[in-house]
Amino acid sequence: MRSLNLRKMLAPLALSLMSACLAAVPALAKDVVDFKPGFNLFSRDQDIQLGREASAEVEKELPLVKDPQVARYVSDLGMRLTKFAPGDANYPWSFKVADSQEINAFALPGGGIYVNRGVLEAADNEAEVAGVIAHEIGHVVMRHGTHQASQVMLAQMPLAIFGSILGQSTSLGAQLAQLGIGLGVNSILLKNSRGAESQSDQIGTYILYQAGYNPHAMADFFDIIQKKYPQRTMEFFSDHPNPENRVAKVDALIPQLGPARDWKTDSREFQLAKADTLKMPPPPKGKTAPTASASMPAAPAAPSSRLVKYQGKGFAISLPDNWKVQESEGGVILAPAGGNVAGAGGDSAQAYGASISRYVPPPGRRVKLSQATQQVIDSLRNTNPNLRVVRQSKGRVKGRAAYSTMLENDSPLQGQKETDHLVTVSGRDGVLVVVFIAPQSAYESYRPTFEEMLKGLEVR
User: How far apart are the first and last CA of the chain?
Assistant: First the structure.
């Protein structure tokens, strides 16, 4: 889960061709679990190709467990679980055990899943391991890896260039490397947002229920290991940012999936595999898992009192002269140096400044401003499940109808909340969408600047 980033999250609205289709899922769960992947610039076949290339790079850095019984156990368990995955789960699945005692697991696009031996060592029963694997299967079928890459690409170049890159027959990895997207153990493909984590929790719970395992096991395991092994789970929660109220959300979902069953919890095969891992020598030293920086970026310099005018497409706005303008096909980012930070999922997210985009209704349809505003909020909430509307009012901006909506959201700054002021204004070519963004702790100091920028906003 990460901060509002209009360049990433409103681009699908401004570029209506990017709307994702709802995957076909069993009737039992499609009304209670969100099985809808985010927008994606990659095809399903490209997911598979990219996953194979990424797997080759990962295994250059990540030692694997050689014990055939342990490897076979994890592979067999993973393959059984894929039969219960929702949507189109016909991927060339592979399940491997990484020789690392960190409690972690990760999924590559196209079906490559790696489980650290530390998961087997820490788990008490098979249901807990099945929960970890089912969660990773959720990342694959929801295509979270290439969704992340698509977000980065959308922020870096015009849409017209995407086809020429993704349509080439040469290595996808080589093409992405030119954009700074690597395929190793620290790749953006492995960094998930809290929204992706929450969705994979839902998918994992569904898979466990369908497979006959105790569906509480996954969230319970995450909660237990965080308390029992705080040092060994640091990697897991840097790569899998912990959604708020994780256990409570899973517990609330389970009754909606169907009646309680005589759940399977453990197996002899798991206990034998666990015993084998506990007998293994310590893993080789070196890089054994994806890592994420825990450093807290310094706050940007205060906004300058001197404003300069920026002329955008169909609008004009003033901004502090010590802020920068970042233009993309999906919109405009106005931010101070250091205003964009590495979010919880590893990608760039805006923590300070303003984002401007445009909501364009489907061809031939007229949408009221109130409806457009709600659709913008719903779109933002798709990837920000903790987004909350604080208050909303209707008014005018330079004579044009407008809505002012105050939002509370998770900040990309670790452990912080942010305040977002969403302003939607009717224009000739759709609705202009402006969001003023700052951490709650700093919002009052930014408020005067935001108010001056809004006073000078002109929409055509």
Answer: 34
Residue 456 to residue 96: CA distance in whole angstroms? 57
Name the token pair of 221.
């395991």
- The C-alpha angle with vertex 258 and arms to 267 and 251, in degrees rounded to 5, equals 75
For residues 29 and 35, give the distance between their C-alpha atoms in angstroms, rounded to a whole number: 9
Domain boundaries of the chain, sorted by first residue: 32-279, 307-459
**Which of 17, 18, 13 has its CA nearest to residue 355?**
13
Identify the CATH assignment for 307-459 out of 2.40.50.140, 1.10.274.10, 3.40.1000.10, 3.40.50.360: 3.40.1000.10
Contact assessment for residue 420 and residue 440, using Cβ atoms and an 8 Å cutoff: no
* One-character DSSP codes across 60-125: HHS-B---HHHHHHHHHHHHHHHTT--S------EEEEES--SS-EEE-TTSEEEEEHHHHHH-SS
β-bridge partners, 355: 333, 435
DSSP character for 297? P
CB-CB contact of 433 with 459 (8 Å): no
Question: For residue 1, what are the CA distances in angstroms to 60, 266, 411?
Answer: 30, 32, 9
Digit-by-digit pLDDT tens for the chain (460 residues) are: 344 444 444 444 433 322 332 233 333 444 456 577 877 888 889 899 988 988 988 898 889 999 999 999 999 999 999 999 998 899 999 999 999 988 889 999 999 999 999 999 999 999 999 999 999 999 999 998 888 777 766 655 544 444 444 455 456 666 666 555 556 555 556 667 777 888 899 999 999 999 999 999 988 888 777 677 665 554 565 556 566 677 888 888 999 999 988 999 999 999 999 999 999 998 886 544 444 333 445 678 889 999 999 999 889 999 999 999 988 766 899 999 888 876 444 446 789 999 998 887 767 677 899 999 998 898 888 767 789 999 999 999 999 999 999 999 988 887 789 999 999 999 887 899 999 999 998 899 899 999 999 999 999 8
Q: Give helix then strand counts, H and E, for the chain.
A: 16, 15
Q: State how far the Cα of 27 lies from the Cα of 19, in Å rounded to an integer.
A: 23
